[in-house]
Amino acid sequence: xxxxxxxxxxLLCANAELKKSAELSGREIAALWREIGHVFPQEAFVxxxxxxxxxxxxxxxxxxxxxxxxxxxxxxxYQCLESTAYYSSSRPEFHRTTQFAINHGLANVLDVGCGTGxxxxxxxxxxxxxxxxxxxxxxxxxxxxxxxxxxxxxxPEVPEDxxxxxxxxxxxxxxxxxxxxxxxxxxxAATCLKPGGYVSIAVPSKSGLYRFMPWDxxxxxxxxxxxxxxxxxxxxxxxxxxxxxxxGGDLLIGAGMARQIHLHHRLAFALGKRRDNQPRAWxxxxxxxxxxxxxxxxxxxxxxxxYAYFQKA
Length: 313
What we know:
Elements: E1 4-5, E2 17-25, H1 26-35, E3 53-59, E4 65-66, H2 75-81, H3 92-103, E5 108-112, H4 118-125, E6 129-133, H5 137-145, E7 149-151, E8 167-173, H6 182-191, E9 193-204, E10 226-227, H7 230-240, E11 243-249, H8 254-270, H9 282-292, E12 305-311
Parallel strand pairs: 5-6, 5-8, 6-7, 8-9
Antiparallel strand pairs: 1-2, 2-3, 3-4, 4-10, 9-12, 11-12
């Protein structure tokens, strides 16, 4: 599709020349959520009506993909999700970043969007002093009850005396894809770091398994307002004056592959994009072959997330 001027600017590089990558109607997004068991009141879908057209834009300059940031989920939307197992108790970035902190001799960490504090539990076991930022009062209370120091405020409002001189490490796990201004939040994190401190980021990977799941409603507003690839980390570093220390992707696990392909078929059928007469066993067969041949060790890292480490000068 050809590039054209648009009232929006790229959320990473601010370029105004955009290409339309995909679109769904508000009715279709609601139908996809219903297919996986979620029904939201209209106040949770502010800006997204049944007849709305939700467009995924691609920046013609840097390639970043994003939606209108005004469609980012509100508190009512996340309250509705809270009734499910929304916070993951264990993710690859938890263990990876804890080991990174140990290897670099870091003493403390601030986890932005810490949820119930599962990563902070692991970090404390590794000897780090733990701080968290969580706006959800229920999740914040659970994390605080574990003995972590939790702030129920925005990043710029974290008191300076909480960590004199700045934090050694700030983590943003599965956060940037939700926020309207990813560059701004990373700049805010940098101001809370000590010189030489680090930021650890993990986001869903648009180049991994999600590439084959274009109708996963979690990858659309109001849940996510941006899609991320490894090259986007370089753009993010250039826009924030942070040094990109390294990046990579999670391994694709065979069981997860089969589960996601089955889900994709359900979602495609819900949109009328697939006839329901295709073989149901082939995702499991593909998963079995993938596991037995050890493909996860030689194939590209097509897992659900990518990660990066940045350092402040």
